[in-house]
Amino acid sequence: MIRFFAIISFLFLCASCGFNKQLAYFKSTTDTCITVSQKDFEPIIQTGDILYVGVNSLDPVSSALFNFSTTGTSAAPGMQTANTLPANTTLGILVNNDGSIELPKIGKISARGKTKDQLRNALLVALQPYLKEPVVTIRFMNYRVTVLGEVNRPGTLSILNERVSVLEALGLAGDLTMYGNRNNILLIHENKGVKETKRLTLNDYSLFSSPYYYLQSNDVLYVEPNKAKAYISSPVAVLLPAFTTSISLLVLVVNSFLK
Fold it and tell me: Measured between alpha carbons, how far is residue 251 from residues 19, 34, 232 in Å?
């Protein structure tokens, strides 16, 4: 009887040690310098993004024609009101299904696949006939990523600084639970209207040099459950306590008859 429980305890101890090792991040990382991928990361504009576009110049009156204010001028087609913006600022401009935005006089400008700087340069060229020394400000109004699965606070995260890494997003979601698979995190990413998937691992420092280390707007991270979660959800985990109890009772009965 004592030997039986000693064996069971030893097996549980070994399983516990192995499971604890699975919870650590970057187990293969040693003291070193790692170059982070895309140090000057710029998010790419995608269909469905909402952009703040502010136009200014030496002639404020002329500039006002290109700005849709929260007071006075109503929004043009494709424009969405942002309640968080202060008065007298440009409303959000929706990137249409064809990947373009539309401004008065200028008309449609291709935006999808561009960075903010690239779109800004395109707008500056288009504004030259109408404004003297125009200045264009562009910001994402709906930069967000979604974290699902085995994290403590799954959901959609709004990112104010327009730049978030995989680790930062997981941190904002409350970190992985003890049942999250550190070796197999699924990233769902949109590239020019096409959904792509990529598997990431938190147990290798190569993540830092990955082109997917920084997330684009509307990216989705899904943390899969590990084998421990699959086990506790299985019928075996439910039946095992009853089985071990039955074995213990059987051993006691047998011992009592043998005495």
Answer: 30, 58, 26
pLDDT digit string, tens, across residues 150-165? 999 999 999 888 889 9
**In the chain, where do the E strands start and end?**
50-56, 79-80, 92-94, 100-103, 107-110, 135-140, 144-149, 155-158, 180-191, 194-200, 220-225
The enclosing H or E element of 37 equals: none
pTM of full prediction above 0.70: no
CA–CA separation, 221 and 133 (whole Å): 42
pLDDT tens for residues 90-148? 478 999 989 999 988 888 999 998 999 999 999 999 999 999 899 999 999 889 999 99
Read off the tokens for 162.
Answer: 């327009």
Amino acid at position 162, single letter:
E
Under DSSP, is residue 142 helix (H, G, I), strand (E, B) or coil? Answer: coil
**Phi and psi for 27 in degrees, rounded to 5?**
-65, -25
CA diameter of the chain: 106
User: Which three-class secondary structure state does DSSP give residue 248?
Assistant: helix
